[in-house]
Write a structure and sequence with these properties.
Elements: H1 2-29, H2 32-35, E1 41-46, H3 48-51, H4 56-65, E2 68-71, H5 77-80, H6 90-101, E3 105-113, H7 119-122, H8 127-144, E4 151-156, H9 169-174, H10 178-189, E5 194-199, H11 205-220, E6 227-230, E7 233-235, H12 241-252, E8 257-266, H13 298-317, E9 322-327, H14 360-367
Helix pairs in contact: 8-10, 13-14
The structure holds ligand 9MR.
Ligand 9MR binds next to loops.
């Protein structure tokens, strides 16, 4: 009897060990950054826990899989300059030290954005004050990290869907040229850092045309712009591959790099016909809007794997033009999409699941290189 039970225990222990180690081996044997090392950087957005190395499972993956990081929130204005001319560089300094130690490049996100502004900025009336803030913020932050940050999203999301400039405190108080001026200031403060314009939906024809006009305007002013960041918040079941290809061609023709800066492919139904990453957008939920709260069906995981593989095949075709592909979060649990545009859903947009285990999308993308 005792022998029988010990055998059962033994078998259970062996299968547990092999289960744990097979999970580990599969995560360790293949690495995205190794696989694509001759093609483009592979980045990931990281949060405070991850910067401070307090998230052990994420820490392993970040170091093993990625050679670029973007701070998901901590370099945004409300965090880094919470009070007028009072800067808090603690977390950004930690991020830079973490990246240096692990031979990872940092993309600074972001110097000028209409959203997540410090409270003191939101109701500023005088154009002079906005100008002072604008110059001081860009100069102080960009110069502190010159060369330590590999690239900056100098301006984020300045465009409307029709390609015109978005209404914001900067447009309102500084006028049409504020984007050019942001790049001029960044160029002066950070001569050793690449300068990018970053936005969502700029693969779409109208918004893309607006981005091209903006980039041309910066170039015509004799100001440096090194690249454009297409955010890449898309839906796995509706990936705009043709628009993405057209965008790579058209942006590259301007002599700049193209990066995919915030990639995630949602598998959830959207309450909107058009995709948006505008963080102020919200929608109400109903039972049809959260179909996979108990797990991701294999058919959906496979559909997503195919979409990611199709995307990477295209990016490999244009590897000379594509500088970096950054995922917006380490694993599905971290994704902003669990709360956007409907709060409290369960989305699965990334390569690693809630147990940090690689999903079919991870393997299908690795396979695009295995021929
Ligand atoms: O992922 C970020 C989330 O944690 C923040 O709450 C949100 C607030 O604005 O910003 C998210 O990141 C955004 C990025 O900075 C700019 N493009 C859209 C991203 C997703 O909203």
């Amino acid at each position: 009897m005792i022998r029988k039970y010990s055998f059962i225990l033994f078998v259970a222990a062996i299968s547990l060990i092999s289960c744990i180690s097979s999970k580990k081996v599969s995560a360790q044997t293949t690495s995205l950054k190794e696989t694509f090392k001759n093609d483009f950087l592979i980045g990931v957005a990281i949060n405070v826990q991850q910067i401070e190395e307090k998230d052990a499972a994420a820490d392993v993956l970040i170091k093993q899989q990625f050679n670029a990081v973007t701070p998901e929130n901590i370099m945004k204005a409300e965090v880094i300059e919470p009070k007028w001319n009072t800067f808090n560089f603690d977390l950004a300094d930690k991020l830079v030290a973490f990246a240096q130690k692990n031979n990872i490049k940092v993309n600074g996100h972001t110097l000028i954005w209409h959203s997540q502004l410090p409270a003191f900025m939101r109701h500023m009336q005088s154009a002079d004050s906005v100008k002072q803030y604008f110059e001081n913020h860009i100069t102080t932050v960009a110069s502190r990290y010159d060369g330590k940050v590999y690239s900056w999203d100098v301006v984020n999301e300045a465009l409307n869907e029709d390609g015109t400039l978005r209404k914001s405190i900067f447009l309102d108080k500084l006028g049409d040229d504020y984007v050019v001026e942001a790049f001029r200031l960044a160029q002066k403060a950070a001569p050793h850092t690449k300068l990018y314009y970053n936005d969502y939906n700029i693969e779409q024809p109208k918004k893309r045309a607006g981005a091209i006009a903006l980039i041309k305007k910066i170039q015509a002013a004799g100001v440096r712009i090194d690249g454009v960041g297409i955010q890449g918040h898309w839906r796995a079941y509706n990936l705009p591959l043709n628009d993405i290809e057209e965008s790579i061609k058209e942006f590259s023709a301007l002599g700049i790099e193209v990066a995919f800066t915030e990639l995630d492919l949602s598998v959830l139904p959207s309450p909107f016909e058009k995709v948006t990453a505008d963080v102020s957008t919200t929608a109400k939920s109903d039972s049809t809007m959260n179909p996979y709260k108990n797990g991701l069906p294999d058919s959906v995981a496979q559909m997503q794997a195919k979409a990611y593989a199709d995307l990477f095949k295209l990016l490999l075709k244009y590897k000379k033009n594509v500088s970096r592909v950054t995922f917006w979060g380490v694993n599905d649990a971290q994704s902003w999409l669990n709360n956007f545009p409907i709060r409290g859903r369960t989305d699965y947009p990334l390569f690693f699941d809630r147990n940090f285990k690689p999903k079919p999308a991870f393997y299908s993308v690795i396979a695009t290189k295995e021929k």
